[in-house]
Amino acid sequence: MTMKTTLKLNLGPQHPSTHGVLRLILELTGEQITSCEPDVGYLHRGMEKMAEKMSYIQYLPTVDRIDYLAGFFYSELYIRTIEKALNIEIPEKAKKIRALLLELNRISSHLLWIGAFLMDLGAISPFFYAFREREMILRYFEKLTGQRMMYNYFVFGGVRHDIDFLEDIEEILNILPEKIKDYERIITDNPIFLTRTKNKGVLTQKTAINYAITGVNLRASGVNYDIRKSDYLYEEIDFNPVIMEDGDCWARYKARILEIKESLKIVKEVLEYLKKSEKLKQNLIKPIGIILPEGEYYSEIEAPRGLASCYIVSDGKENPYRLKWRTGSYYSVNLLRELLVGNYLNDAIAIAGSLDIILPEVDK
Questions:
Q1: Which residues, including other chains, have CB under 8 Å from residue 121's CB and lie 6 or more apart?
Q2: What b-and-e string marks burial along 284-323, b requiring 16 or more CB atoms within 10 Å of the CB?
Q3: Rounded to an integer, what distance in angstroms lies between the CA atom of residue 241 and that of residue 349?
Q4: Is 250 within 8 Å of 219 (Cβ atoms)?
Q5: Would you say residue 9 lies in a domain?
Q6: For a designed S-S bond to 197, which of 92, 100, 228, 249 qualifies (C-beta 3.0 to 4.6 A apart)?
Q7: CA dist 195 to 33, 91, 254, 347, 353, Å?
Q8: Domain range for residue 182?
Q9: Prediction pTM value
Q10: Does residue 235 lie within any of the structural domains?
Q11: How many domains does the chain have?
Q12: pLDDT score, position 1
């Protein structure tokens, strides 16, 4: 009787091969993975502890860095939690501006994911194509806010200033749909891509729910759950959550492609509103000396990597007593314990890459 020998292998934590400094401790029998233990914490920055030592306005510019690819989302999340606590109603135009920038940010995030995922699988050209289109959005953000990635544009009660350069958004809407078609012609039915993604890393609905998975990874497994449907910024905006059924790497890819198209529809609808709107009028609250009433406050948002939430405990002082972030990537990393087992080593990066994990979201 022969005994099977096992091998322990460290996958990572070198960046960018594991999408940030993520270490996966794999146990292999031959080339088949029998166990996976994610080891995180290499990037920990103490974002939650920092909040306890800073006033609410001092902490605001730091939150864009929780997910450096989706800074607008965490800025909006933090601000809406405080606005809810202080019963602040923002102007309708400010809501539309926020929704438009969130969706452009979602598109830019998904574009980077497409490029990085294809590079994981050995295809270099889509990486450059996706970054080419993403650059259009980043240039617009830089024009509007002064920053390419860390924007600090949303403020308590509205936005820093009225939106401008709408012709740049029209250019994005004119160019990007055709480029997405190009991606699909190159990628979607490519036989090598299908071999690497079809029936790989299958996430069942039951497993997704048990692991508290949200966002695209959940919807690609057939669960219709999109926070935007109950989000006050999207109340009058028409869009359909993208739902896939197979739950494999290919379904997660296709869901993000379709979600870009839905986001473009939202951007187009909001842009038409903004072109007809009057100049933004808002009464911003004085940011210095903000004090939340004693109590607990919570808000959530549909970020590119799933449900993100902000929980603040106030003891009536100028800084939070406790602040806690919930991020989608943290739960996706935990899911690797389940998805990698039974698959082969050469599929590990494809499966991990399909989940769209960003380590700053994990190591808060």
A1: 192, 193, 196, 197, 350, 353
A2: eeeeeebebeeeebebbbbbbbbbbbbbbebeeeebbeeb
A3: 27
A4: no
A5: no
A6: 249
A7: 19, 50, 15, 10, 15
A8: 46-362
A9: 0.94
A10: yes
A11: 1
A12: 47
The pLDDT tens digits for 323-333 are 999 999 999 99
The answer to whether position 12 is within a domain reads: no
pLDDT of the residue at 254:
97
For residue 3, the model assigns a pLDDT of 57
Sign for the CA dihedral angle at 126, 128, 132, 135 comes to positive
DSSP 8-state symbol, 229: G
What pLDDT does residue 19 have? 78
**Spatial separation of the C-alpha atoms in residues 258 and 242, rounded to whole Å:** 7
List the structure tokens of 322. 């406790």
Structure token digits, residue 220 = 């690609």
The CATH number that applies at residue 203 is 1.10.645.10
Q: Would residue 13 count as lying in a domain?
A: no
Is 267 in contact with 273 (CB distance < 8 Å)?
A: no
Ranges of the chain whose pLDDT falls below 70 = 1-3
pLDDT of residue 278: 92
